[in-house]
From TrEMBL:
Name this polypeptide is given: Carboxymethylenebutenolidase
Domain YqhI: 2-28
Database matches in Pfam families: DLH, YqhI
UniProt entry keywords in alphabetical sequence: Hydrolase
Record domain Dienelactone hydrolase: where: 72-281
Record-linked SUPFAM superfamilies: alpha/beta-Hydrolases (SSF53474)
A GO molecular-function descriptor: hydrolase activity
Length: 287
């Protein structure tokens, strides 16, 4: 697919551009409204087309924990019958806790961790089925309260009796930016992994104590513009970090429900690197 169309969709999903304006621009790039309507399903996430991750080795349940202004909803997944588990908080994209991120949470658990997929939209009633509505609601969250709700999620994991007290986080897109913010704001965090997420403010980098792993798509000009200044600050402050840029792939390359942006090779490599970091830093025990 034409990279201009993919970039247009990326702009649409990360801004307040209306669907009407997006479709008008898409029709211009496609050559007609009819062709735009044909292309649209290839751009939008298709949860039904993606394989649902399931294994008998994990247990999955809905949980809540105390947030700033009420209960935060989340999905908890963990290996059956295991204790002393390293813990991972999973942070969704800018449309809420959708089926793809629930699958990611289960995949983290299958690797031997206690995984918590938090619904940031809990204060606004939870993640809606309409992705455009979810994107609108994300923009209505109070940034400071949202940050505190995630910090409380990390504390919830630290206090779990089936965990070992060591906690990391992994976030995607909007969640990747939040992973960087958590690294800045939680000095007890052991590891933070950000997939194509906005970088933390350079002035805040000295606060980071966690080991960072940052995954970027080579074609993601919007997010990648912030890499040089961030990396320089990480180096100057002697932060433990690794940056990986995957050539020829787009923003959201890990999302297997996004057919035009998903890149299987890059996704598998980034995932293996992510899990290796968590195994190193969170001291997973299987007894």
């Amino acid at each position: 697919m034409d990279q201009k169309i993919i970039s247009l969709y990326d702009e649409y999903t990360h801004s307040q551009v209306s669907r009407k304006d997006f479709m008008r621009k898409l029709a211009v790039l496609a050559g007609s409204t009819a062709l735009a309507m044909t292309i649209l399903p290839m751009l939008e996430n298709n949860y039904a087309a993606a394989a649902d991750f399931n294994t008998d080795d994990i247990e999955v349940k809905d949980v809540t924990y105390a947030g700033v202004d009420g209960e935060m909803k989340a999905v908890l997944a963990k290996p059956k019958g295991k204790k002393n588990l390293g813990c991972v908080l999973v942070i969704h994209e800018n449309r809420g806790l959708n089926p793809h991120i629930i699958d990611v949470t289960k995949r983290v658990a299958a690797e031997g961790f206690l995984a918590l997929g938090v619904d940031a939209l809990s204060p606004l009633g939870g993640t809606p089925t309409d992705e455009d509505k979810g994107r609108e609601l994300i923009g209505k969250l109070d940034p400071e309260k949202n940050l505190q709700n995630y910090l409380k999620g990390l504390e919830y994991l630290r206090n779990r009796k089936d965990g070992n007290g060591k906690v990391g986080c992994v976030g995607f897109c909007w969640g990747g930016g939040m992973a960087n913010k958590l690294a800045v704001n939680d000095p007890k965090l052991q590891a933070a992994v950000a997939y194509y997420g906005a970088q933390a403010n350079v002035a805040d980098v000295p606060k980071i104590k966690a080991s960072l792993m940052l995954h970027y798509g080579g074609l993601d000009e919007r997010i990648n513009a912030g890499i040089p200044a961030y990396e320089q600050a990480l180096k100057e402050n002697k932060i433990d970090y690794k940056i990986y840029i995957y050539d020829g792939v787009n923003h959201a390359f890990n999302n297997n429900t996004s057919p035009t942006r998903y890149n299987e090779a890059a996704a598998k490599l980034a995932w293996s690197r992510t899990i290796d970091l968590f195994k190193q830093k969170l001291a997973v025990l299987t007894r």
